[in-house]
């Protein structure tokens, strides 16, 4: 069996969401909670070390797809490209719900939260591959943050990293993806962050903006709504909230 896969360069990604829009346009996805390609953005840290993370998250078409093992025939691992595909006749089956439970990345989405709702997922744009074209998400990336091809070729070109910060472990499922992780950036102009905060607090003759620097550097829980990666939304509403930047 051949195994094709994706490459995602987190250092190049600007969060433009062109990949998501191309996917929705190509697959004619209506507004709602169906997400063949999810794009996550979340924030960690506080001044002066705030970091914004991005993650391109289609189905990663794992080499060892644990979802297929429990899907009772609702999913198949086709052999030409290694794509994991839903059997349309079983798209509303309990097997597909079990597959979602097993998938560490939450790659299956459902049209509603009803028990018999139909499920949908990325199919690697197999129809485009058969026509000699790239998946639409890869084709439109203006920053060249995405690539696609044989997994072995991607690994030879970009390395073998399959996990980004906060992602589930790849050890069991072996997703067909290669990542390039964002690195910590050094300040262009070194400065005393504590002194900067002290100056920011002053509003003479008005009272200070804050009384202690920890008021700024310690962010209480709940202030930042998306402060961690969660790829397994408990409901369609939560999935929409966690991926709400994709112009739905």
Secondary structure blueprint with pairings:
Blueprint: E1 4-9, H1 18-27, E2 38-44, E3 51-57, H2 66-70, E4 75-77, E5 84-86, H3 94-102, E6 109-110, E7 119-120, H4 126-130, H5 136-139, E8 146-150, H6 151-158, E9 177-180, H7 193-201, H8 214-217, H9 236-242
Parallel strand pairs: 1-9
Antiparallel strand pairs: 1-8, 2-3, 4-5, 6-7
Compact summary:
This protein has 248 residues and is α+β, with helices and mostly antiparallel strands.
Key descriptive features of the protein:
alpha+beta, 248 residues, two-stranded antiparallel sheet, three-stranded mixed beta sheet, 9 helices
Description:
The protein has 248 residues and is of the alpha+beta class. It has one domain: Alpha-Beta Plaits (2-Layer Sandwich), CATH 3.30.70.20. It is built from nine helices and nine strands. It has a three-stranded mixed β-sheet. Strands 2-3 form a two-stranded antiparallel ribbon. The relative contact order is 0.23.
Helix content: 10-25%
Instruction: For the largest sheet, list the strands in their spatial order.
Output: 8-1-9
Uncertain segments of ≥5 residues (pLDDT<50)?
A: none
Structural class comes to alpha+beta
Assign the CATH topology.
Answer: Alpha-Beta Plaits
Shape: globular
State the major sheet: 3 strands, mixed
CATH class, named: Alpha Beta
Assigned CATH architecture: 2-Layer Sandwich
Q: Output the number of helix runs.
A: 9
Number of domains: 1
Order of helices and strands: EHEEHEEHEEHHEHEHHH
Multimeric organization: single chain
Distance between the termini: 36 Å
């Amino acid at each position: 069996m051949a195994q094709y896969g994706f490459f995602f360069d987190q250092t190049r990604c600007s969060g433009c969401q062109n990949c998501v829009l191309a996917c929705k346009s190509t697959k004619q996805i209506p507004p709602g909670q169906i997400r063949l390609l999810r794009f996550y953005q979340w924030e960690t840290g506080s001044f002066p070390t705030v970091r914004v993370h991005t993650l391109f998250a289609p189905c990663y078409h794992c080499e060892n797809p644990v979802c297929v093992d429990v899907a009772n025939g609702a999913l198949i691992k086709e052999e030409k490209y290694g794509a994991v595909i839903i059997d349309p006749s079983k798209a509303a089956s309990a097997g597909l719900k079990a597959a979602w439970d097993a998938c560490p990345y939450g790659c299956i989405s459902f049209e509603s939260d009803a028990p018999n709702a139909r499920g949908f997922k990325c199919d690697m744009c197999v129809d485009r591959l058969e026509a000699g074209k790239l998946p639409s998400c890869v084709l439109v990336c203006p920053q060249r943050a995405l690539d696609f091809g044989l997994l072995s070729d991607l690994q030879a070109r970009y390395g073998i990293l399959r996990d980004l910060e906060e992602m589930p472990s790849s050890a069991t499922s072996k997703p067909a993806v290669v990542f390039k992780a964002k690195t910590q950036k050094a300040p262009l102009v070194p400065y005393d962050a504590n002194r900067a905060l002290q100056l920011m607090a002053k509003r003479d003759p008005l009272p200070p903006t804050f009384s202690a620097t920890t008021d700024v550097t310690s962010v209480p829980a709940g202030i930042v709504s998306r402060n961690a990666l969660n790829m397994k939304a408990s409901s369609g509403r939560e999935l929409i909230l966690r991926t709400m930047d994709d112009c739905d």
